Amino acid sequence: MSEQVTAAVREVLPALRERAQDAEDRRRVPDESIKALQLAGVFKLLQPARYGGLEADPITFYETVRLIAGACGSTGWVSSVVGIHPWQLGLFPDEAQRDVWGDDPDARISSSYAPMGRAKLVEGGYEFSGRWSFSSGCDHASWVFLGGIVTDGDGKQVDFCTFLLPRKDYVIEDVWDTVGLRGTGSNDIIVDGAFVPEHRALSFAATSRCVCPGQELNTAPLYKLPFASLFSYAITTPIIGMATGAYEAHVEHMSARVRASYKGERSNEDPFAKVRIATAASEIDAAWLQLKNNMTELMGHANRGERIPLPLRLRIRRDQVRGTGRSIEAIDLLFENSGGRALRVGTPIQRFWRDAHAGRVHAINDPERALAMFGNGEFGIPVQDAML
């Protein structure tokens, strides 16, 4: 069934490609695109089967995201971030899952995980307030995941959680006006004193240990994976997809390009251009192959009911940030190789270049932090990080 989703996505790629500029102009993914992806089943890939989901292998999900991002970077980004959330909701207590999917199995969730909220313990739950930025696809969601610090009655920090809130409990402020990923609609979320019941909070400590209440009913190996491993690749995969789209657009562009400065030399006859293309292709392939290898190994442990080894989790984060870096390096090579005409507004190469660089600044793409964690692990230094 999950393979049918990928096939259905391939059929809508031309339409997504045609709407890429429209997404930029609207500063949000067009409703028509979201509907097409919903009908294709993209947002059901990682959703629990108990609520109509497909419980697909993560690689299938990432393959689908890569295809979408290769047509439109912003649409791929939103598809990935929003598409990973059904998996996370599957880790919450079943009462929270019923709250979201009980009446609408197609309900979507956006997010902003930075601990910008403050949650005070009260009877039955939390009093929650804050302001969060960068909630991609929030206009297409009826719920949101928000990060927050939990304090007790004395103001002492006692936990760091993801909180689940319905649309009636928050306000979206339209602030998203950027040079890249313009179509993601990553606006601000504002919460002012909302009550969040206890079952709609999930501790990051629980997700890091891979021991969550939702696993009692969602028993598939998929729900025994570390949050940071899956979510970090949900950020890198669209960037790999953008690099793939830039590569395809570049090869097509170069096949017809004539270089006036070099006496009318055709670019497809330029040996130096071919070297750059080959180098870019290798970087993209390396990023993707490491992702597939790591996810295959990760799922192997989960399928066998084994604890996920710390060295593998560290390697996943290492290869994830390097996957982003490789993709950026590839896009830069292609962009520099494209000539001045690629600068024109509306051309796909410059859009992929801007979108990928915008995605690069996501907090989970911090290469020094991830690579330092890997180095600590290699030297036997204890590693504790919410991004692991």
UniProtKB/TrEMBL annotation:
This is Flavin-dependent monooxygenase, oxygenase subunit HsaA. It holds the Pfam family Acyl-CoA_dh_N. The keyword Lipid metabolism applies. InterPro entries: Acyl-CoA_dehydrogenase (IPR050741), Acyl-CoA_DH_C (IPR013107), Acyl-CoA_Oxase/DH_mid-dom_sf (IPR046373), AcylCo_DH-like_C (IPR036250), AcylCoA_DH/ox_N (IPR013786), AcylCoA_DH/ox_N_sf (IPR037069), AcylCoA_DH/oxidase_NM_dom_sf (IPR009100), HsaA (IPR054617). One of its GO terms (biological process) is steroid metabolic process. GO terms for cellular component: cytoplasm. Pathway: Steroid biosynthesis; Lipid metabolism; steroid biosynthesis. It comes from the Bacteria. Residues 6-101 form the Acyl-CoA dehydrogenase/oxidase N-terminal domain. Its EC number is 1.14.14.12. Keywords: Aromatic hydrocarbons catabolism, Flavoprotein, Lipid degradation, Lipid metabolism, Monooxygenase, Oxidoreductase, Steroid metabolism.
